[in-house]
Amino acid sequence: MSTIRPRDAGLLTLRLPVGAYASILHRLTGLLLVGVVGLALTFLRASLQGPAAFEAVAQRLRGPWGHALGPVAVWIVAQHLYGGIRHLLLDAGWGFGRDRERLSAFAVLVLAAVTALGAALSWP
What we know:
77% of the residues lie in helices and 0% in strands. The chain has four helices and no strands.
């Protein structure tokens, strides 16, 4: 019996295909959406308390935290939305094959980044 045991390559040393990253990000952003929706509902509830409360929420969203977290929240929503559309299309039978899957995964990552960049540049 051999005493040589297999080595654990470690998660960070694995070279995953781009489709795996898109799929992992889809699951991760699904979890993060719980926090984004909760935060959005908290802001909505606070803003409906009256004109002064609305202005306070607006000021908070225009401040440094709003400028930092707003585009991140937009990226989370966009990444999950585009990844979900990709998964639905794959489930429907469109996009099979190594090249098409790689292209659709890359398109999801780029579209989400462009959407977040657009949100960051146009944030009030």
